[in-house]
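quick one before i forget lol
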Amino acid sequence: LEKYGIESVILISNLYMVQMLLGIIEGSTRREVLLFRTIQTGSKEHEDPTVFLRRFKTEGVVFKLDSSRIIEWLVSNGLVNKSEININDPKVALRNLVQTREEVRQKVDLVLHTLSHLLIQQSSIDTGLDAQSLSEIIYPSLASILIYSTSSVDIGGIEYTYDNHMSDWLNRIEELAHDCSQDPACMEDEGGACNACLLLPEFVCKNFNQNLDRGCLIGGPRYGFGFFRG
């Protein structure tokens, strides 16, 4: 865990979620302006925008990153000044930075979001769930990621992986972070995120595949200091 800057991993075997379908995104979310439309139901004369909801029981796992390690990454890459940070309580210091400085929030989100996509991409071998069966919630203020199954039927794979194959899962994400099959084009021309390494189906991703870059974890042309060690 120390190698990957993770403070703790917490299994939630009984996780209750509420999913909402607000509408439909039309067109590419990476190359064009977002086009959103609501879902209309009813007769042609009396159509109303409709939101669909479902509540379901599933499972998930929380990856909580080391706040002091994130601060170290921010300082080493010149994103914050060490003199403005209370190093005696890194959790409070990081939370204050995220809540008061938008550019810091975006960079912390970048690290968490990139790590989340790597985990989802490499999950199927042990969990038995493909990337389309998982989703994510990112908590920048808490330096945490929640990855959960979107199925209420095919559950148990995350718990099995947590109990038996967590180190294998983490080792695979490091391999993918360092070795995308599309490099050097991916790292240099695509901003460190392409279909071969980080991009997920857009209904899986909490941010439509925005704010992703393997370079923040391993270093590269945009970040001299990677979040991973070793």
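fyi The mean pLDDT is 91.
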